[in-house]
Write a structure and sequence with these properties.
four-stranded antiparallel beta sheet, 59% helix, 4 strands, elongated, alpha+beta
Length: 333
């Protein structure tokens, strides 16, 4: 039997497959928490706009009492309420009876800066509380956690590297998934009537097969969104820009759809059913569900790693201890 025939019919006996399995196993464990974090936050943020709307309270209206305070008066009131801060923005809404938003800042010029966003009564100057509700702040932090790991530009670059590693992990998963010509169809569904260990393996294989396209989509688009200039430069090298192809370049279309499909929102050009409605809700639900697939892969993979590596080593240590004479046994650490 040739090497290729062994790969088709008995892949478990091929050295390359064994090596790829070990690489896939340990790299998956190493990337696991990162994948879990990005997967869960990404699925939640499919509904980012809905979360922002739900977290945004109705505007605060006050009772008019005399003439409204001038900007200078509001600035003085705000700085007295927050000593050490300076007013940087005063936002007056169209409704004169609505609370005025004032942004104050402290620090800067080489010092650690701090900003406060407050609401003030336009007539009395009373501080009415934070202008950014807790819910809006939480959604914003969740978005930053997903986009740049709360690390700004550096975190975004780390995200790009993580996305590249997920691409490599997914491609190695294709090699590991292939069970052979006789049984490959079994890996498309959840096995029945088997033990829990075999069930976990079957679930991992099934989710990996059906979710591979989406996982690669999210990872590749994550690379672009983390480093758009680098990806665009690579695209320009692959298909140089000319006057003739300025609006028809294939690489530009690929980048557009790659970034567009990352978010699972269909309010854009080229989608047959645009705007709110059943199609929009179905698309978001689909993206939210498949966005959990990488998290599911990590959980099932971690269970298999625990069973194959940790439990196996612990059992071997226990057997080796029981095989030794009592005088030679050392206490477990």
């Amino acid at each position: 039997m040739t090497y290729w025939q062994r790969w088709l019919w008995q892949p478990q006996t091929v050295w390359l497959r064994k090596a790829t399995f070990q690489l896939h196993l340990w790299s998956g464990i190493g990337l696991g928490l990162y994948v879990l974090l990005i997967s869960v936050t990404g699925s939640i943020l499919v509904y980012r706009n809905e979360l922002y709307r739900a977290a945004t309270p109705d505007p605060i209206l006050v009772t008019a009492s005399g003439a409204p305070l001038t900007d200078a008066q509001l600035r003085g009131t705000a700085t007295r309420a927050w000593p050490g801060y300076r007013v940087v923005i005063i936002s007056r809404p169209p409704n004169p009876n609505q609370a005025v938003g004032i942004s104050l800042e402290r620090g800067g010029h080489g010092l650690k800066s701090s900003r406060k966003n407050r609401l003030f009564n336009p007539y009395t100057g009373a501080d009415l509380g934070d202008s950014v509700p807790l819910g809006v702040w939480a959604v914003s932090k969740l978005l930053s956690l997903h986009d740049d790991l709360l690390g700004g530009t550096t975190g975004r670059k780390v995200n790009g590297v993580g996305a590249l590693l997920v691409v490599a992990l997914s491609l190695s998963g294709i090699v590991v998934w292939w069970p052979g010509m006789r049984t490959w169809r079994r890996s498309l569904t959840i096995p029945r009537g088997v033990g829990w260990q075999r069930l976990i393996w079957g679930l991992h294989s099934m989710v990996g097969f059906w979710g591979l396209g989406f996982i690669l989509l999210f990872a590749l688009s994550g690379v672009y969104l983390s480093s758009p200039d680098l990806v665009q430069d690579l695209a320009d090298r692959i298909e140089p820009l000319t006057d003739a192809n300025a609006r028809t370049r294939t690489v530009d279309q690929l980048i557009y759809w790659l970034a567009y499909l990352h978010f699972g929102r269909i309010n854009g050009i080229g989608i047959p059913c645009r705007g709110p409605g059943i199609c929009d809700m179905a698309t978001k639900l689909t993206w939210a569900v498949v966005g959990i697939a990488p998290a599911g892969m990590f959980v099932t993979g971690a269970v298999m790693w625990w069973n194959r590596v940790v439990r196996k080593r612990a059992k071997a240590r226990k057997l080796s201890r029981t095989a030794l004479p009592k005088t030679m046994q050392l206490p477990l650490r």
